[in-house]
Amino acid sequence: PDHAMDGRIAAAREKLGASTILLGHHYQRDEVIRFADFTGDSYKLSKAAAETDARYIVFCGVHFMAESADVLGKPNQQVILPDLNAGCSMADMAEISQVENCWDSLLAAGLKPGEVVPLTYMNSTAAIKAFCGERGGLVCTSSNARGAFEWAFERAEKILFLPDQHLGRNTAFAMGFTPADLVVWDPFQINGGLTPARLRAAKVILWKGHCSVHQRFLPSHVDAVRAKYPGINVIVHPECRWEVCQKADALGSTERLIKLVEDAPEGSSFAIGTEIHLVNRLAKRFAPLGKKVITLDDTGCLCTTMYRISPNHLAWALENLVDGRVVNRIQVQDDVKHWARVALDRMLEVKA
Ligand code: 13P
Ligand code: SF4
């Protein structure tokens, strides 16, 4: 870890006082997250953004999280993303124009608007969240995906789930749906690569997106770690593929994965399938308490976009605030904000 910026960050933080809140996602580097006033998974951080009265929200996370904070924040608040290049490869796999095309194709296949609820994972643009809100749908995170599916199925017969096929498949299978109920919409094929009859028969239409970090965990990693460490608990994020989740002992959002280790008795051991910074932090924190934590894939999976938030970017953004300048503001357009807010408010009503 590079602690060269510690003094600058701490000094700026002190000068800004209560005007500024620093939110940190669990995948942030140690030298950044240690300055966070509040840490959490996507759900917890969006709640924090909705509840804070601070004038400035400095979001140490990725673009879609900062956008959601801007949508949920109060009118006088401003959201700052220390590095504008901190995106998310999964969120980039669905563009609003592609989603609109998909929706048109569903209607052309004979589905009625009220028959399908569009449900988007938090890891998507504000425009896609607004699209869902306007059509009676909502947003979910990995911690309330099941509740959001149930919410949607109380209102319609089908779900269009964007953009993470793995979270969608894992949630649907956990609810008792079978492969015959699911189809995968490929945005790079005409009509998603599906016939109108197949679309009409499906209960869950999954968008063909994935997390390039979590997709690297494989079933063979689970087998290898179990063979090497008999009795180890394998816990993974639900963005991992179905074949991995099926072999795991438990699935959970980043917050839940942490809780599983916290609540385990001394002497427990865990192999975790999620981003390496979180895994390493847990390993360090729990080793003195007699709990062993290792990464599921022994090379470790790094989210390079989360990693973009460096101590240098953070120091620079905070020092500009001290000087009265807002740099790297994330601002969602007003017309998008309204419906994105509707979809996010529905998400916050579904318990994590
Ligand atoms: P969580 O909501 O579990 O923190 O997940 C966010 C994310 O991007 C995981 O890749
Ligand atoms: Fe996006 Fe995957 Fe990084 Fe999460 S871990 S922010 S889904 S690229």
TrEMBL record:
Pathway assigned in UniProt: Cofactor biosynthesis; NAD(+) biosynthesis; quinolinate from iminoaspartate: step 1/1
Keyword Nucleus: no
GO function terms (MF aspect): 4 iron, 4 sulfur cluster binding; metal ion binding; quinolinate synthetase A activity
Entry's EC annotation: 2.5.1.72
Keywords associated with the record: 4Fe-4S, Cytoplasm, Iron, Iron-sulfur, Metal-binding, Pyridine nucleotide biosynthesis, Transferase
Cellular compartment(s): Cytoplasm
A Pfam family that the UniProt record links to this protein: NadA
Cofactor dependence: [4Fe-4S] cluster
Reactions catalysed, as given in the entry: iminosuccinate + dihydroxyacetone phosphate = quinolinate + phosphate + 2 H2O + H(+)
Residue sites binding [4Fe-4S] cluster per the record: 88, 211, 303
Positions with a binding annotation for iminosuccinate: 25, 42, 121-123, 142, 237-239, 254
Signal peptide (from-to): none
GO cellular component: cytosol
Root EC class: transferase
Note describing how the cofactor binds: Binds 1 [4Fe-4S] cluster per subunit.
Entry's family note: Belongs to the quinolinate synthase family. Type 3 subfamily.
PANTHER family attached to this UniProt entry: QUINOLINATE SYNTHASE, CHLOROPLASTIC, QUINOLINATE SYNTHETASE A
Task performed by this protein: Catalyzes the condensation of iminoaspartate with dihydroxyacetone phosphate to form quinolinate.
Annotated protein name in UniProt: Quinolinate synthase
Top-level taxonomy: Bacteria, Pseudomonadati, Acidobacteriota, Terriglobia, Terriglobales
